[in-house]
Design goal:
By secondary structure, this protein is an alpha/beta fold. The chain has one domain: TIM Barrel. It has 16 helices and 16 strands. Strands 1-2-3-4-5-7-11-14 form an 8-stranded parallel β-barrel, surrounded by 5 helices. Helix 4 packs parallel to helix 6. The protein is globular and about 60 Å long. The relative contact order is 0.14. This is 6-phospho-beta-glucosidase.
Length: 487
């Protein structure tokens, strides 16, 4: 089958401000929820990921102590804050058509509840967008990518508090008006469905504050649905030709066996992700939500006008991250778990290989995911994240990352298959196009990029940039619009 990608397909790469920028105390920036995450190489990996799922008061309080001796890697990122011109020039050299990035809320409103924005922060993103546009790179911007102000957590209780809607909309309106001539693609919330698994970084909820954490999670989610609808409405008014999308983490789930219990459990688990796109794309709470809420003991506080607002302001496209699939069993007690599958856990699939971090690699699952989402919503799709976290070794100044090329090429081949299936896919941004701090483990040695950054997990190094073999490979893929995929 010949390779086919649309003529105006948006090839590019993706990062998040909290993982790439650094400059945590520069330009008037405030602390974000991600600035609290620590890294300690003497502890097992499970400890690094545990804090991703649950944050405590003690950890938050210590992070606000300027005398803390702990390492907070996301405060330093890979110094994009100072090196953005160099990095964007490298993206342009690869041929990027788009760069998916996020705006750090705390650069614009350091505490989150201010009435007036921080001009230094606004100026920084003016310069970043101008640099992108200089090379013909279309910015695709996430407004909230695990970067809400920490102050809104400690003083307001996060998104469980309805007041945060107004703070967020003030932020969104500010940046929409500021960058209306520079940005045409917007995503209000990154991986909005991940509130299920890590409520602290997703909605600013510290679990020990809530006797019914499920109530807090889904109340926070409802407030984000309202905020997303308000932002979509504002965007369409301020930038009439702009497109607004939702974004979820889509880990394809498959039954471990043909046991009907496994099949039913898989359907139930998959719905916990599709619930979010059902609301944001279809504009209504799905029929199955009633039972789901009853079983979780959730009773949403919905104000007059909320449901109408959500119904009238659905998203224009659906974007998602895809890294792996996961096998689901209703009776997992005697089965081997897939420990690396951070979103859902799940059972290890014997037909799939795994990365060093235990993420099961399933390229064909991406084609299935694209078809599932398009069958369900009939809206344009954007693959906003996809990549392989791996340890890269420098040999004579070079990084031969054939394993990354193989991973990405197999996934791109499956996007090609989905396009032939008739799925409307309009773009693809490889995750961590330059090495960044890992979201879940807070280390940089779990590398994703086409560009190597010379720094280790403890922050030691020159921060110099080095092109990997995958850099030239991706450059060729973009130049030929995917015509020469071989795997």
């Amino acid at each position: 089958m010949t390779n086919y990608f649309p003529e105006n397909f948006l090839w590019g790469g993706a990062t998040a401000a909290n993982q790439v920028e650094g400059g945590w105390n520069k330009g008037g920036k405030g602390l974000s929820v991600s600035d609290v995450y620590t890294f300690d190489p003497t502890l097992p990996q499970r400890n690094w990921t545990d804090q991703w799922h649950m944050m405590t008061h003690a950890q938050v309080e210590e992070a606000q102590n300027t005398n803390s001796k702990k390492l907070y890697p996301k405060r330093y990122g890979v110094d994009f804050y100072h090196r953005y011109k160099e990095d964007i020039a490298l993206f342009a050299e690869m041929g990027f058509k788009t760069y998916r990035m996020s705006i750090a809320w705390t650069r614009i409103f350091p505490k989150g509840d201010e009435l007036e924005p921080n001009e230094e922060g606004l100026n920084f993103y003016d310069r970043v967008f101008d640099e992108c546009l200089k090379y013909g790179i279309e910015p695709l911007v996430s407004l909230s990518h695990y970067e809400m102000p920490l102050y809104l957590v400690t003083e307001y209780g996060g998104w469980a508090n309805r007041k945060v809607i107004d703070f967020y909309v003030n932020f969104a309106k500010t940046v929409l008006e500021r960058y209306k001539s520079k940005v045409k693609y917007w995503i209000p919330f990154n991986e909005i469905n991940c509130v299920k698994h890590h409520p602290y970084v997703s909605v600013g909820i510290i679990e020990e504050n809530h006797p019914n954490i499920e109530q807090a999670k889904y109340q926070g989610a409802h407030h984000q649905f309202v905020a997303s609808a308000l932002t979509t409405k504002l965007c369409h008014e301020i930038i009439p030709k702009a497109k607004v999308g939702c974004m979820i983490s889509y880990q394809l789930l498959v039954p471990y066996s043909c046991n009907p219990d496994d099949v039913q459990k898989t359907v139930e688990n998959q719905r916990t992700s599709l619930f979010f796109t059902d609301v944001l794309s279809r504009g209504t709470y799905p029929f199955y939500a009633q039972r789901m809420f009853e079983e979780k003991g959730v009773h949403l506080k919905i104000e007059d006008g909320d449901l109408e607002l959500i119904h009238e302001n659905t998203v224009d496209f659906i974007s998602f991250s895809y890294y792996m699939s996961s096998a689901i069993s209703a009776h997992p007690e005697n089965l081997e778990g897939a420990e690396g599958n951070l979103i859902t856990g799940g059972i290890k699939n014997p037909y799939l290989e795994s990365s060093k971090w235990g993420w099961q690699i399933d390229p064909k699952g991406l084609r299935i995911a694209l078809n599932q989402l398009y069958d369900r919503y009939q809206k344009p799709l954007f693959v906003a994240e996809n990549g392989l976290g791996a340890e890269d070794i420098i040999e004579d100044g070079k990084i031969h990352d054939s394993y990354r090329i193989e991973y990405l090429e197999k996934h791109l081949k499956q996007i090609n298959e989905a396009l032939h299936d008739g799925v409307d896919v309009f773009g693809y941004t490889a995750w961590g196009c330059i090495d960044i701090i890992s979201a879940s483990t807070n280390q940089i040695s779990k590398r994703y990029g086409f560009i190597y950054v010379d720094v280790d997990d403890l922050g030691n190094g020159t921060y110099n940039r080095v092109k990997k073999d995958s850099f030239e490979w991706y450059q060729h893929i973009i130049k030929t619009n995917g015509e020469n995929l071989t795997s």
